[in-house]
Amino acid sequence: QVQLVESGGGLVQAGGSLRLSCAASSRIFSTSLVGWFRQAPGKDREFVGAINWNTGNIYYGDSVKGRFTISRDNAELTLYLQMNSLKPEDTAVYYCAARPPPIRRIASEYDLWGRGTQVTVSS
């Protein structure tokens, strides 16, 4: 069974940066669209960004565009989310998810999920 494991979350002050990682237990990424979602208590799971692993096309949600950057390590099958200029409203559990292409921005369209990593931004 394929597993996704997120890491890199923590506590940071507003304006700071964090880098999240998502590692896969198999080569599922090579044929997948892989993305990040986030969910704050009482709110819907929100699309952050995703990459088509095959084509390299990258997509971002409007709330993070210009501040967050998605990248990958093909050899290590790892997805990254570089988060800069963090705001208190970025506080959430961040999840890594995968599905077959094409791009989807709704959480229910993704079949494979990690357990999440907490990001807390203080004011």
H-E string: EEEEEEEEEEE
| Alpha plus pi helix count | 0
Helix- and strand-based class? mainly beta
Q: Give the N-to-C terminal Cα separation.
A: 40 Å
Task: Report the average pLDDT across residues.
Answer: 95
Condensed summary:
This protein has strands spanning 4-7, 10-13, 18-24, 33-39, 46-52, 58-60, 68-73, 78-83, 92-99, 112-113, 117-122.
Structural overview:
The chain is mainly β and 123 residues long. Helices cover 0% and strands 49% of the residues. It starts with a strand and ends with a strand. The model has no long low-confidence stretch (mean pLDDT 95).
Give descriptors for this structure.
seven-stranded mixed beta sheet, 0% helix, mainly beta, four-stranded antiparallel beta sheet
Question: Any chance you could write out the topology, listing elements then pairs?
Answer:
Layout: E1 4-7, E2 10-13, E3 18-24, E4 33-39, E5 46-52, E6 58-60, E7 68-73, E8 78-83, E9 92-99, E10 112-113, E11 117-122
Parallel strand pairs: 2-11
Antiparallel strand pairs: 1-3, 3-8, 4-5, 4-9, 5-6, 7-8, 9-10, 9-11
